[in-house]
Design a protein that fits this description.
The chain is α+β, with helices and mostly antiparallel strands and 391 residues long. Helices cover 66% and strands 9% of the residues.
Length: 391
């Protein structure tokens, strides 16, 4: 019934060894090195060998456990019959009863049986006079009561430990399930964003190409194929290619180098400038002594990446600034471009603003947009949570 280290086999063997050595020493001091000493030591040695071969701490209530307990009770009584000084072997036998049996009721009955056996052994050793019987009853009643009190108390502690372990396992499982759901929600949101982007950009461009190709075939069949039709087809193809590259860039894997978010933004800006020809400037006023949590850095980097993708697709800008800052307990990334601007209230779904809001909403953040021409600003903010200190 007791769990963990209390029932570990090695601890029980250590307890038995200690009790046996103490019994041998006490018996030697009490009766000397005569026959009774030899009998007592023989019982202890035989029981230790039996216990080592048969005892299993993980078989509570089994036939093996009951057999071990019966032998333990018999040995405890036999030792007391050899000499009353060995009655303290009960200190080993009572805990064994509570460990080997599966329920408290059985343990109480086994303890009562042990008390009776010990009482009979005491009477046999000291005589069957009324005073001896009264003394034996008194000693074993006190021993039985103490054993029951300790057994119930320790069992209660063990049950509480088991319950706490169960609750901890359930909590760990719930946390793992929540993390999996969070990942699934993120993956689902990303798929929805990609589907929306594909529909709003590449699919529409490919539809236009199909229509232009059909027009070209009709003109070719009639002998009136014009260069303007082929030019329109080429332009539509180039636009589809540009949109594809933009979508790939916006969905690329986010990497955070050793230098953290600032270095990642600089690398992102350098790559964007090389691919688009738009000048990118990265400015950070974020305090170095307050590092961001890794998840927060990833969210802000992805927001900057999405903001640049929108600039490439829609702004017609010549320069972009990425501003990393903190204020009022929030960290923020601003994407500011000098493009044509737009009205945020009538922005097309293809701008990806809803996807950014969903991403920030998962971490308690927010998104604001100022579509002023020449100073269009997209601002992503999330709660400033410091990264855990390195151990």
């Amino acid at each position: 019934m007791l769990a963990g280290t209390m029932t570990a086999r090695r601890w029980w063997m250590l307890a038995l060894t200690g009790a046996s050595i103490l019994c041998a020493v006490v018996l030697g001091l009490s009766v000397g090195m005569g026959l009774r000493f030899g009998i007592g030591v023989a019982i202890l040695v035989a029981f230790a060998v039996f216990w080592a071969l048969v005892f299993r701490c993980d078989e509570e209530g089994s036939a093996r456990a009951v057999a071990v307990l019966i032998v333990t009770i018999a040995v405890s009584g036999a030792l007391t019959a050899v000499d009353t000084s060995l009655a303290f072997f009960q200190a080993f036998a009572y805990p064994a009863a509570w460990t080997l049996l599966a329920t408290a009721r059985r343990a109480v009955l086994a303890s009562a049986a042990l008390a009776i056996v010990e009482g009979l052994a005491l009477v046999e050793r000291i005589g069957a006079s009324p005073s001896s019987i009264g003394l034996a009853i008194t000693i074993e009643t006190v021993s039985f009561a103490f054993a029951i009190s300790m057994g119930i108390w320790i069992t209660r502690i063990a049950d509480l430990g088991t319950e706490r372990k169960r609750l901890f396992d359930e909590l760990s499982g719930a946390q793992a399930e929540l993390a999996a759901m969070h990942r699934d929600a993120g993956a689902t949101g990303e798929r929805e964003r990609l589907a929306r982007e594909l529909h709003d950009t590449i699919a529409q461009s490919l539809t236009a190409q199909v229509l232009l190709a059909q027009r070209a075939r009709r003109e070719l069949a009639s002998g009136a194929l014009s260069d303007s039709t082929l030019e329109l087809l080429e332009t539509a193809s180039r636009e589809a290619l540009a949109e594809t590259r933009s979508l790939v860039a916006a969905s690329a894997r986010v990497e955070l180098p050793g230098g953290g978010l600032v270095e990642a933004l600089q690398q992102l800006g350098t790559r964007f400038e090389r691919e688009s020809g738009i000048t990118v400037t990265v400015v950070s006023s974020f305090p170095v002594e307050v590092p961001l949590a890794r998840d927060a850095e990833v969210v802000l980097l992805r927001c900057a990446q999405e903001g640049l993708a929108n600039v490439r697709k829609h702004a017609g800008a010549h320069a972009v600034r990425l501003l990393l800052s903190s204020s009022d307990g929030f960290a923020g990334v601003d994407v500011v471009d000098d493009g044509r601007g737009f009205d945020p209230s009538s922005a097309a779904p293809g701008f990806g603003l809803s996807g950014l809001r969903d991403r920030l909403g998962l971490v308690g953040g927010s998104l604001s947009v100022d579509g002023t021409p020449g100073a269009t600003t997209l601002t992503a903010r999330l709660p400033l949570v410091a990264a855990p200190a390195a151990s």
